[in-house]
C-alpha cells in the first residue's frame, strides 16, 4: 500500500492497530479506499468507500460489491492476485498436492539472512493450498497447510465452518481449530465469543447449522466459550496460539 500510494501520489493514512473507529475517522477525513483483513469488514460501514481490499485471511463468499479479494504476501511485494485473477506478468500454479506457487517480477531476491525461498526457475511455494479453475484461470485459496483439520480421514477447512457459525445471532466471533483426538485423529472445536445479550450457542445448534450447509465432518464436536480471540496487530487470528492453549487444556 505504501509503495502504491507513493507511485500514484495518493495521500496515505496509517493506523497503528486494526481499529474500526480509526477506519471510520479516516473515512470522515476523506479516505476513499481501505485495505483490511476480512474480520474487520463486519465492524465497519463499507458503503462510503469506493473500494475495500480484503486479504490476509479467508474471504467471505457473501460480501459487499465494493470489496476486492486480494492474494499475495511480503515475498511477492504485496497483492498479486485480485478477485482470483493474476496481475499482468504474474504467474500462478498449483502442485499435484494443491500447494499454490507464484512467480512474479516483484518477487523478493532473498531474505535478510541471504537465504532464497525461490526454486531455480523463480517459483515461490507459498504454503497455501488452492484450486485454479481450468476454464477461467481463477484462483480459489483454501487456506494454510497448517490450518487444515483432518478428522476421521476427512478434510475440514476452518474458515468454511467459521463462515457458517458467524451467521448465528449468538456468535460475535469464532475460530475453529483441530485438537488431537485418539478416535478421530483431530476433532473440530469451535471457540466462540458469545454475542452480548444472547443465549450462548449450544453444541447441538452449531452442529445442525453446519451440517445443513457443509459435509458432516465439518460439524464441531465441541464448543468452547471464550472472552476474546488473540489477534495480530492487523486483526488476524493467532491460530497457533489458540491451538497451543486449548490443546494443553488452557481456556
Number of helices: 6
Spatial shape? globular
CATH superfamily caption of the largest domain: ANL, C-terminal domain
Number of domains: 3
Radius of gyration: 19 Å
CATH topology of the largest domain: GMP Synthetase, Chain A, domain 3
Instruction: Name the average pLDDT.
Output: 90
- Give unreliable regions as ranges: none
Distance between the termini: 37 Å
* The CATH class of the largest domain: Alpha Beta
Query: From the helix content, strand content and strand pairing, which structural class follows?
Result: alpha+beta
Query: From the coordinates shown, what is the CATH architecture of the largest domain?
Result: 2-Layer Sandwich
Order of helices and strands: HHEHEEEEEEEEEEHEEHEH
Content of β-strand: 25-35%
Using DSSP, what is the number of strands?
A: 14
* Spatial order of strands in the largest sheet: 1-2-3-4-5
